[in-house]
Each structure stands twice: as C-alpha cells, then as structure tokens.
Amino acid sequence: MSLCGSVSALNLRWEKGIPKSTTRCFSPSSCKKSNGLAFWGSEFVGEGLKVSGRYVNRKLSTGTLQLKVVCVDYPRPQIDDTANFLEAASLSASFRASARPSKPLKIVIAGAGLAGLSTAKYLADAGHKPVLLEARDVLGGKVAAWKDNDGDWYETGLHIFFGAYPNVQNLFGELGINDRLQWKEHSMIFAMPNKPGEFSRFDFPDVLPAPINGIWAILRNNEMLTWPEKIKFAIGLLPAMLGGQSYVEAQDNLTVQEWMRSRGVPDRVTTEVFIAMSKALNFINPDELSMQCILIALNRFLQEKHGSKMAFLDGNPPERLCEPIVEHIQSLGGEVRLNSRIQKIELNNDGTVNRFLLNDGSVIEGDAYVFATPVDILKLLLPNDWKEIPYFKKLDKLVGVPVINVHIWFDRKLKNTYDHLLFSRSPLLSVYADMSVTCKEYYNPNQSMLELVFAPAEEWISRSDSEIIDATMMELAKLFPDEISADQSKAKIMKYHVVKTPRSVYKTVPDCEPCRPLQRSPIEGFYLAGDYTKQKYLASMEGAVLSGKFCAQAIVKDYEMLVAREKRRVAEAGVR
C-alpha cells in the first residue's frame, strides 16, 4: 500500500492511497480546483571550485498568500527486471558472495565522490578495509552541496537520476533508500525560444513498451520537428539501431554536428533538439561533443521502457545519498576521513606506491591504493616517474569541462514552471528546475528557487558573479516573460549562490575513448576510479558508480598478488 503526503506551511499529514489523476495547479489564480502545487508520482567537482553568494535584504510583503504544497510522487518504475539492472545486481552480489579474505586488505582511496564512495562500499562488502580520504570537509565530489546561513542548500550541479542508471538504482536499493528518489512523470520538456514562456513536451506513454513509447513520444511532438525532419533523422539513426555497440563506439571520431550532416540530417534537428541534449549531457555544444555520447544516451533511453524517466533526490546529496554509503562502509570496518588532502604520491625504488603524504605532514600506507579524484587532480599529483608511461600519458587528452551552477531565490512563487527538469534551449543555460517544487527538502510555499546549469561556461568561468547573474536574468526573462524581467521590475532576487567548477566531468570530445584508462593500472597495487575511466556510461553519476565497482572488482581479483606483494615488502624491510 502506498502513502502520499500533504505538506504545507501550516500542516503536515500523511494519507493512504495515491489519486489517479489531478489538475496541475501552479498558483491559486491559475486553478479553481486547488490552491496547491502538485507533486505527482511515488547527473559534478574539480580543482579550484569557487562558491559564492549574495543576499538581498528584501522581505515578503504582508498578506502573502500561503500556497499549500502537496507532495505526491510517481511510483518507482518497474526497472528491476531489465537486463541492465539484473547485470548490475549480479555485480553487486558478487562482492557479498566472494570468499572472505584471510587477511583483509587495507586499501587507501583518494576522493569521496561517488566513484570513491562506490569503490569503498563494494570493497567493504567483499570483506576488505577501505580508508577513504576526502580533501574537503564535505562528501560527494561532483555532487557536493553546502548549507548557507539561512539553512538553504546550494549544490555543485543539478543532479537527475534516470531509470537507465542500473548501478545507481541498485545502490539505492542496497542502502534501503529507494524512497529518497522523487520520480517525475515520464516526459521531456523543452522551452520554445521562438515562443517565449511556452514549452513543448515529449510524453512517453506508460502502456507502450520500449522503443515504441519513445518513438510515439517523438512522433506526437509536432512543435519542434516537422515530419520530413523526423523521417530524415530516423533514416540517419538506422545504422546506429542496427549496428549495436560496435557501431556506437566507432562514432567517437565525429562530433554530433559532423555526424548529423554526414547522414543528411537537417541542421535544424541539431538546433532544435541536440544543442539542448549536448549541453545537458556534457555542458558543451554539438560542434564539440562526440556523437558516441549522444548515441549511448539514445540507446539507453530508447531500448529501456523507463530509461529516460527522471527522478530528483528528495534533499541535499551529501546527507541523503553520501552519508548512507559512509555509514555502510563504517559498519563493515572501513574508514572515511574528511579534510585529508593528498600532497604527494611517494614511490618505492621499483616505482610502486610506498605511501600517500598528506598536506598536514602525516602519511598513510596501505596494501593497495586508489585514486578516485577527477582526472585533472590525478594529473597534477602524478609522479614524474609515471608520466611517460603510455597508460598515464594518454590522460593528457582527458580534460575536465568548466561548468557553473546558479541558484536564485525569488520573492514570489513563479507560475510558468513544472514539477520536472526543463530544457531551457537558451544559448547560455542548459537545464533548470524550480527546486521549491521538485524537491521535498527544498520546498517553499511562497518563493521559488531556480537551480540552473550555466553552460557552456568556458567564456564565463572567470567572470564575476554579478555578470553571471545579470546574464542569467536576461535569459530567464525569455522563459518567464510575464514574471521575470532583467531589471527585476517584476520578480525580485532575494539572494543567489554561484558555484563555479573550472574542471568538472571530462570533456567528451571526439577521439577520447581510446584515452580512457582501465581501472587496473600498470603500476602493481595502484588503481583508478572515476567516470573518465573505462565504462559504458561515460561522464555521469552512473559512470562514476560503475567505475567504482570495476575498481573494487579488479582489487578483489588481485587479492593473492597484493598479499604476496605485502609479504615481499615486509621481508625486504626485515633484511634492511
């Protein structure tokens, strides 16, 4: 039996059952049936992160109408019987079922983002003792978040959990926190730049299987693409649909724009759909993004019925996602240490790792070592003796992409929005959401908080926060023409936070795939984890979690070698 909650500024009550339908209302004036905001239903940090904010001393006018927020999420989709979910579940189970080590390994892991947390979690499941070191005072890496003086959270990025994220979905289930995902209706919603304030939807019918539900969603939308454009795009996609994974991987040498043109797909298809999709996937435009990235996403979304269905986390990622992983690791004897920044990787005479030297002067030794930081940080700390090894030399091609995440609190509840992720189709913005509607912890009955991804950000990352906010407001004036103006003569900014990440996920440009390393390095006892390492989900939360599982799997397989290595080290130390 399901539960639905009704939350307002004045009351908190829980009721049994979920209504089958409702009228979506976004303000008392826009709906006569209810004065509520309806919640229906059951993918970033690099070196040099900058977080800043500004407060504007404005108060809500007296007599402000209290809107009631009704929190009723869509049920969790039936994804547990998909091939990808079962494959992910089998990999998770292999750690729990592995033979208990006679001598648990001490594995030192640098970086408590999702890749490092995943590595530590599955090593602990296999009976080993991970020691996870995080340079900062916050968990999460690219999903980190902070609380300001008002108690409001602001995040590194706007993170979406897809049905096509089988390892992430398994992780939530293994931790017993499936209820922390707020699933939204199965739709993709795009703003219409030529019709300010209007949106176009791709709605995926629940009654149809994949890929028919996705094809139906595309065919039913006549606002963004014409029928001739749809036909030419479908013909262009046929080789990808018939060629499988080998074909997809072979397209890594072309940008999205080059691939579309080579297949006779009109440029307007790229402009209408794939600029927004490219920016959402990797924060860059189609003239830079590898077509492999788009094809992988389309394959997941079209081949799995609920693949493109989206969920928001019900609160801030460090507490709602990362802390349960830490608690699990600690319950099995592992450790997680914050404020533990690595200064140097110290080597033995044979070129293997001797220990990590930390910024505070302390050192830490282990039976094996993992770097689960962004690739740019790894390259900064890479020992000189390793830099010409081909495995590490190829990392030069992998560079983090800059991204900016913007949070703006307004003095009123905005009406022209949805309980969903929205594709802005703006030249400066990627995706956005009114987090006061989509996320339970952030809900506010009186004020909207828009979280927006500002991308591409390369030309803006060094600009002032005020310039970024001014540019954002100009774009928002087009998305909310009746409610927002660039000069704030309509909705007023109460405060804002700007989070700059100069090096986020690796930039998925053509010919990167051969440069992505396997998790087991050629240095005995040294491993890598991170979404840039070899796994099929590229730069994403799913990719980070899967890379951690692959890293843990490699270490478990190397157990006998690592034990023998430690015995040799002890014996050599005794001879000295």
TrEMBL record:
**How does the UniProt record describe the way this protein sits in the membrane?**
Peripheral membrane protein
Give one Pfam family.
Answer: Amino_oxidase
Please provide the record's keywords in A-Z order: Carotenoid biosynthesis, Chloroplast, Chromoplast, Membrane, Oxidoreductase, Plastid
Q: Which cofactor does it need?
A: FAD
- Primary localization: plastid
Is Iron-sulfur one of the keywords UniProt gives this record? no
Q: Superkingdom of this entry's organism? A: Eukaryota
Which InterPro entries does the entry link to?
Amino_oxidase, FAD/NAD-bd_sf, Phytoene_desaturase, Zeta_carotene_desat/Oxidored
The gene name on file is LOC111457519
Question: Subunit structure, briefly?
Answer: Homotetramer.
The residue ranges of the Amine oxidase domain are 114-555
What reaction does this catalyse?
A: 2 a plastoquinone + 15-cis-phytoene = 9,9',15-tri-cis-zeta-carotene + 2 a plastoquinol
| Protein name in the entry | Phytoene dehydrogenase
Q: Give start-end ranges for the coiled-coil region(s).
A: none
Concerning its family, UniProt says: Belongs to the carotenoid/retinoid oxidoreductase family.
Look up the EC number in the record and give it. 1.3.5.5
**Subcellular location(s) of the protein:** Plastid, Chloroplast; Plastid, Chromoplast; Membrane
Q: Decide whether keyword Membrane is in the record.
A: yes
What GO terms in the biological process aspect are recorded for it?
carotenoid biosynthetic process
Pathway where it operates: Carotenoid biosynthesis; lycopene biosynthesis
Molecular function as annotated in GO: phytoene dehydrogenase activity
Q: Which GO terms describe its cellular component?
A: chloroplast thylakoid; chromoplast; membrane
Task: Please name the source species.
Answer: Cucurbita moschata
